Amino acid sequence: MHKNKNLWLKAVAVLALSFSAFPLYAVTQARSAALGELVSGAQFKNLVELPAPAEIAVPEASFEAVLPETRAVAPAPGRDFTPKIEDASRIKSIMKLVADIYSGKPLPYPQDGSIFKNKEGKLPVQPAGFYKEYTLLTGSAPHTVVIGGTTYQVAPDLSARGSERIIIGGGEKIYYTPDHYAHFIQLTVVY
């Protein structure tokens, strides 16, 4: 039994090497050496008799940690938003921020791109890490904004980051808050 366990561990090590970040040459050499040991003589017969242990199964969720780099972190920028924002400078600021996030440009504040926890519970419930927060700098834009016919009061600036934020959910949904999380307006990019 001890011999079977060692063979199984060697086989698992060969598979692990296949998925590591080693250069291809090193992986090929290690795999060849390990497989050579596995298929020689009686060891091969022992390996065939081994049952596949259940703990080797990889749950689908574990791939999620690898995949975020392949997904966009923001929708592609467009020409406008719906509902209609009746402030050209704010549209320009939001679109520039979305474009910078989409293209991976550096953003001015370390908090940009951090996880938004939705502590207020005003956005739809999603798994932890679904929402990302970004600072929206609007300069000398008015302190009221009309979106879809509703007027929102922009909260006073409490710091250099101001009070306006863009929250991006799952790399697809855009939420704008003019008043530091008191209200959220979902925006859709118009292409």
Which helices and strands occur, and which strands form pairs?
Elements: H1 2-18, H2 24-39, H3 41-49, E1 80-82, H4 88-103, E2 114-115, E3 131-135, E4 144-147, E5 150-153, E6 165-169, E7 173-177, E8 185-190
Antiparallel strand pairs: 1-8, 2-3, 3-6, 4-5, 6-7, 7-8
Helix pairs in contact: 1-2
Summary, kept brief:
The chain is of the alpha+beta class and 191 residues long. 30% of the residues lie in helices and 18% in strands. The protein has a six-stranded antiparallel sheet with strand order 1-8-7-6-3-2, covered by helices on one side. A two-stranded antiparallel ribbon has the order 4-5.
Number of domains: 2
Low-pLDDT windows of residues: 12-36, 42-50, 56-70
Estimate percent helicity.
Answer: 25-40%
What is the 3D shape? globular
What characterizes the major β-sheet? Answer: 6 strands, antiparallel
Question: Which strand order does the major sheet show?
Answer: 1-8-7-6-3-2
What gyration radius follows from the Cα positions, in whole Å?
A: 26 Å
Helix/strand order, N-terminal first? HHHEHEEEEEEE
Distance between the termini: 64 Å
Q: Determine and state the CATH class of the largest domain.
A: Alpha Beta
User: How many helical stretches?
Assistant: 4
Number of strands: 8
- CATH architectural category of the largest domain: Roll
CATH superfamily of the largest domain: Microbial ribonucleases
Class from secondary-structure proportions: alpha+beta
Estimate the mean pLDDT confidence: 76
Assign the CATH topology of the largest domain: Nuclear Transport Factor 2, Chain: A
Tell me what portion of residues adopts beta-strand conformation. 15-25%
